Amino acid sequence: MGGNRMTARVFVAKELRRAREAKGLTRAAVAKSLYVSDSLIAGWETHRMLPRPEHLERLLPILGLGDILVRVIDELVAGEVPPEWLDKWLTVERRATSLLSFESTVVPGLLQNEDYARAVLRAGPYDIADLDDMVAARLDRQKILSREDSPPVLVAVLAESVLGQTVGGAKVMADQLVHLAALAERENVIVQIVPSSAEACAGFTGPFVVATLDDGAELAYVDSQLNGEVVGRPHDVAVLRRMFEVFRADAFPRRQSIELIRRKSEQWMT
């Protein structure tokens, strides 16, 4: 029962959606009133993002909501660990010059195709009604890798088991691995696979990302079964960076990793 408790963040999102629908307003109509995008309204209503104070000031009268929602955000939501798509980490990704990603269970979100992302999110503890919005948000994040203005270098180290775990069925897996191999050919995307026989596998605990920002600062994101955490303490970030380098040291080289991914994709096709 405790695992199904509604968080304050989800409560805020549901209240915003409930109030909008009670007023008979579409997301587009609210967005037009606030001079923001429809996708931003969707982000608020699916608890991916929180309205900023300047937006709340205009949003609450439109929806007929009182200041109690502001207090919920300030006093309750602020104390919760943010999910991976919270605005803070999105900002980190957009400002990153490099991203060091380690995954032992699934393909990293920045490298997922649509069907694979949908299967991953469908299996998570999320409201299935929000699935389309969550998939769209995940795909939108990936645009940083193909932007013309200095895209970040992504180095993704994956456990070999990621290539063999069933996510969405054989076709979804085959298509995802073809997609992954194609992305790994890009100049700014490096994918390396840690073989199952490597001693480093004993140290695998959970996925994390270390980001270096445009001002040289470093932040990390650590994921878990329940939530995610943005890590800023230099010591903690340094520990994660060292772990990444240890895992990468036991990984196959770039070209060998791509060849392995392609072989695995062919196996899923048979």
TrEMBL record:
Q: Where is the HTH cro/C1-type domain?
A: 16-69
Question: This chain belongs to which protein, by name?
Answer: Helix-turn-helix transcriptional regulator
Q: Which organism is it from?
A: Actinoallomurus vinaceus
Any Pfam family matching the protein: DUF5753
Matching entries from PROSITE patterns are given as: HTH_CROC1
- InterPro entries recorded for this chain? Cro/C1-type_HTH, DUF5753, Lambda_DNA-bd_dom_sf
> What SMART domains has UniProt attached to this entry?
HTH_XRE
